[in-house]
Amino acid sequence: MTDARVEAAIANWGPRLIANGVDYNDFVRTVSAVRQWSDWLDAWSAVAEMHLELAAGADAAQQRVTAGEAFLRAAVSYHFAKFVWVVDVARNRVATEAAVRALYAAHARLDATAERVEVPFCGGALAANLRRPALDGRWPLVVLIPGLDSTKEEFYAWESVFLTRGMATLSLDGPGQGESGFTWPIRADYEVAVAAALDALRGRSGVDLARVGAAGVSLGGYYAARAAAFEPRLRAVSAVSGPYDFGATWDGLPSLTRETFIHHSGAASESEARSLASRLSLRGIASAIEQPCLVATGRRDRLIPWEQTKRIADEAPRGEWVLYDEGTHVCNNIPYKYRPLVADWLRDRLE
Questions:
Q1: Which among 109, 144, 219, 278 is most buried, taking Cβ atoms within 10 Å?
Q2: Whole-structure pTM over 0.70, yes or no?
């Protein structure tokens, strides 16, 4: 009998894995063989290692593009091995670091513009990935903000939607996210991370810091909206499936999500995590978002009720609202609808 947590992971996030680069055939083979949640990380790590072997063979044959594509598949496989898997924190970190290495190997072979950015922050550095369109120019910049369990390693396909429309992207691991989460837990005032990232890009070629937007997914939708309220350098913002009040969603969240929040927030107990989650609220803040603000989600979202997300658009003075009746969480079952919508909308407002 399959562990209920495995079933929950498949039901809640299956479309997301495929939309962000996991091969459908890998997905079907892997999840059909996993019975216990404790085996999830090993199963997906094995998929990642298979793709690393393919990458090594392609490199040996001097087939750089083929190798880069294999490294991309390895990166997302390692990422989804541990994205809500906090059974063993040490092993979670090993998989996180492996995903980082694999993505940089992919960048080296597929995108000459890709650059790691170390963002000075609270005595250390946040990690971010900067990508720019291939042609010379000064491009509008979109800061891409992950959610609770996503990281910059998940965003290669998402970034490409903006790049093909003439925008640069900065995918940021903020506090509590990816490798930055090794040092800093989740914090409600995410605008401090966005401000630090923009400061770090001063003087960088290929980006126009007078034309900056942000887009966040899931909990990153809260982060993006909050950052816009406090960071005037953001000229437009989009929030996809973001919570208005994360604490208010607590009881309806999957157990895997609650466990992941406990880990990334540094909470010592579920009660403390619930209290920390309640700080992630846009009450009294959404009304201060002066920029154009596009808010979108799916009516079939099982993690963040669409009514929560709609409150952001309702209270933001220049809020725009899009609800996809067939959409699930972050509309990952219809990426061909929400991704062009967000990218075209931001391009139009940053031009």
A1: 219
A2: yes
**Four-residue CA torsion sign, 337, 340, 343, 348:** negative
What is the distance between the alpha carbons of residues 187 and 269, in angstroms, rounded to a whole number? 17
Strand partners, 121: 124
pLDDT < 70 regions, the chain? none
The span from the CA of 158 to the CA of 171, in Å, is: 10
Question: Which residues, listed in sequence order, are joined to residue 203 by a DSSP beta bridge?
Answer: none
How does pLDDT run across 3-60, given as a tens digit for each residue?
A: 999 999 999 999 999 999 999 999 999 999 999 999 999 999 999 999 999 999 999 9
Query: Token pair 């080296």 is at which residue?
Result: 108
At residue 63, φ and ψ (nearest 5 deg) are: -105, 80
H or E element at residue 314: helix 306-315
Tokens at 207, concatenated: 């980006």
Pair of tokens at residue 73: 């598949």
